[in-house]
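ok so dumb question maybe but i'm new to this and my supervisor (M.) told me to 'just get the structure for SESN1 protein' and walked off. so i did the thing. is this what she meant?? sequence i used:
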Amino acid sequence: MEEREGEVRWDGLCSRDAATRAAALEHIGQAVLRRSETIAPVAAVPPTRAADGLLVPAARDGLSEVLARLLMLSKRCPFPDVREKSEAILSGVQELGIRIPRPLGHGPSRFIPEKETIQVGKEDAMMHTLFADSFATLGRLDNVTLVMVFHPQYLESFLKTQHYLLQMDGPLPLHYRHYIGIMAAARHQCSYLVNLHVNDFLHVGGDPKWLNGLENAPQKLQNLGELNKMLAHRPWLITKEHIEQLLKTEENSWSLAELIHAVVLLTHYHSLASFTFGCGISPEIDCEGGHTFRPPSVSNYCICDITNGYHGVDDIHASPTGSIPVSIKSVCEVEALMEKMKQLQECRDEEEASQEEMATRFEREKRESMFVCSSEDEESAPARDVSRHFEDTSYGYKDFSRHGMHVPTFRVQDYSWEDHGYSLVNRLYPDVGQLLDEKFHIAYNLTYNTMAMHKDVDTSMLRRAIWNYIHCMFGIRYDDYDYGEINQLLDRSFKVYIKTVVCTPEKTTKRMYDSFWRQFEHSEKVHVNLLLVEARMQAELLYALRAITRYMT
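this is what came out, is it supposed to look like this??
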């Protein structure tokens, strides 16, 4: 085996067969040992120096990347034999006098205390199966999975859909799929997803030159840039002419099946960027920002951690409400929300607004949603390492509301997912329509009949208000829904959070996350994010699929 990081074989660790994993671990252990000995022979560093933190850096020969991967496996692999052996290999390297990495941050989310998330190795049988499936498919158990697992039924559907889009037979080659994921995630400056898919892109044989910027990718992918931009920020502007341009550009043209695959990937990763920022997903342990080779200080974090925004656990999860106890203030909010739901239900039973009044209420809510913004809303220049994957960095959702542009109304009665989009996707990319439909339904209908500390609560009214508010921001109207309910059920802090996560997710802050539904469980806030993800994805899809349908007819 060559002494190169790229040729360390990790594939065997994904096997469900313990003997195959053991053989792979032995091979990795020997390769790491050989490299380590070339950097620091045992006799060269007295053992006592390890305690002083005066260890040799591991940067040479790609060893640092291998050690970071082993650190991730020791913390995040669902197979205990892999966790234990990875830890043992790291200890062996440290004994040779070489500095090993340690994790930064606290758990898979910056917003949710680690002790309230599922700990790898302590999951129940059903969750272990999900973790093992995810690890076998992706070669990692990522932080998105560790947060989504609050809702196992949804996670199973999500993983199945993502696996099909990225790895099963389909119109697009594998490296195109990951590159499109990079393009989509980069629209929201989501370095977390970009980093994951850069690694996957290279793993499936993608050309590293493409990663130097979109202009280095094939013209066919460059042509997708305009659709990516509009889908992410202003999907209502997509017309059949945009579709025609992609399908009729001679040697760089897309087939209809390829375009459907690309559109589903773009919408998947735009909405997954929303989830990543909305739940405060931490960098993966083996990626930039997820680990450090600097030694810890006495208090277990050093000045470099503070600079990067990592503080003590108590500091990270401090209450945002100052001296007012959260429980006293928030219990009132939960009770008030439940009372409003009860009153709205009674009003529904007593009288129904006219169609004209319903239309007026929709237009009013749509107009008002344009001007919902956070006091923390600031312009932020995208980091260069992410912005090179897309063009026109100034193009965003905010521009249209600032200039008073009008979002046209899209009536679901004229073009819906159930009656139109589903069949179009299934016809051109078999089985994907079914997978998406299942995922939409699980997110929309998911309920445990609880609200904070209350049980046996029908939350359907609240879930529908959240879903319809998101679609309202995109101009999508349901004729049979009274949009007056939205203002009753969603307060300003919640609307700010929804608008930010859906439209400019890169600007989401922990303060926004903490400020809505303060008495609710973290699992309930993650549930909100699942609704945001799926409602956003469906909204983008509706506009793109309607344009494709118009092109075809």
